[in-house]
């Protein structure tokens, strides 16, 4: 599915954001990417779809090296990589439906997108997705009328209507309250399971990552410091990734949340 080989990013300032990253993400796997600020998490996601240009290495999606595609080939390849942003990246003056359909811009011609005349099959799929995330009744509302959680759900629909093979998710819960954060993480994981999608979720909340994913990768100074199951995030490992802290409290929080999940 996705394989990174020696992925490296060095900025013009000389700052080393990523160093020789080797990583495989099989079809259907949801992976949480954790680490302190500046560890290279967002850079890694953006190097995969080349919003940031890698300095070296390969980004192989089903064997195709994204890192070395021409501009036209890259546009086509990006159809297969849905992106969900922390800041939602919606067009505020457009409706929910129009924002979702914007995910089809890579497939329809310029004039169809300019006049917003999308194929009926795309419109039908947009309605199905909005129904799935509980926003069907808001299809005609403007994006600036929505709450943070609702905006993120629209962003999820916009990514999924591309019919991608891979989801790249950058801090999907950073601006949300704890309850909404859990709902969004649960929704992303359920949708990936339903569609057999692989996903990389960049997330700061370690406890939230441990609650919902089967695999966690920890970055520190642009290198992989941990790659394994959530229960492998012991206090010693978390200290290795983030530095000294009372990590027992974080582990206890996860255990408490698991009890709540079981009771719901």
TrEMBL record:
Key words, A-Z: ATP-binding, Cell membrane, Membrane, Nucleotide-binding, Translocase, Transport
Query: Per the database record, which ranges form the ABC transporter domain?
Result: 2-246
- A GO term, aspect molecular function: ATP hydrolysis activity
Q: What is the superkingdom listed in this entry's lineage? A: Bacteria
Check the record and name the SUPFAM superfamilies matching this protein. P-loop containing nucleoside triphosphate hydrolases
A GO cellular-component term linked to this record: membrane
Q: Which Pfam families match?
A: ABC_tran (PF00005)
What's the protein name? Phosphonate transport system ATP-binding protein
């Amino acid at each position: 599915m996705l394989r990174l080989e020696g992925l490296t990013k060095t900025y013009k300032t000389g700052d080393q954001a990523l160093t020789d990253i080797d990583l495989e993400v099989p079809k259907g796997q949801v992976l949480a990417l954790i680490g302190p600020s500046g560890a290279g998490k967002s850079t890694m996601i953006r190097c995969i779809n080349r919003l940031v240009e890698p300095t070296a290495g390969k980004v192989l999606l089903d064997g195709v090296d994204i890192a070395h595609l021409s501009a036209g080939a890259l546009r086509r390849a990006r159809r297969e990589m849905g992106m969900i942003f922390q800041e939602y990246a919606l067009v505020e003056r457009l409706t929910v439906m129009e924002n979702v359909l914007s995910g089809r811009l890579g497939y329809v011609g310029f004039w169809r997108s300019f006049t917003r005349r999308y194929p009926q099959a795309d419109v039908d799929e947009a309605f199905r997705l909005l129904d799935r995330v509980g926003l069907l009744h808001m299809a005609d509302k403007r994006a600036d009328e929505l709450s943070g959680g609702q905006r993120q759900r629209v962003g999820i629909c916009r990514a999924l209507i591309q019919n991608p093979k891979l989801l790249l998710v950058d801090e999907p819960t950073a601006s949300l309250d704890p309850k909404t954060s859990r709902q969004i993480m649960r929704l992303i994981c359920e949708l990936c399971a339903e569609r057999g999608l692989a996903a990389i979720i960049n997330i700061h909340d370690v406890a939230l990552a441990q609650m919902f994913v089967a695999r966690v990768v920890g970055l520190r100074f642009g290198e992989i410091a941990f790659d394994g199951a959530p229960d492998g995030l012991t206090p010693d490992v978390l200290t290795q990734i983030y530095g000294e802290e009372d990590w027992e409290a974080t582990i206890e929080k996860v255990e408490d949340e698991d009890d709540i999940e079981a009771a719901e």
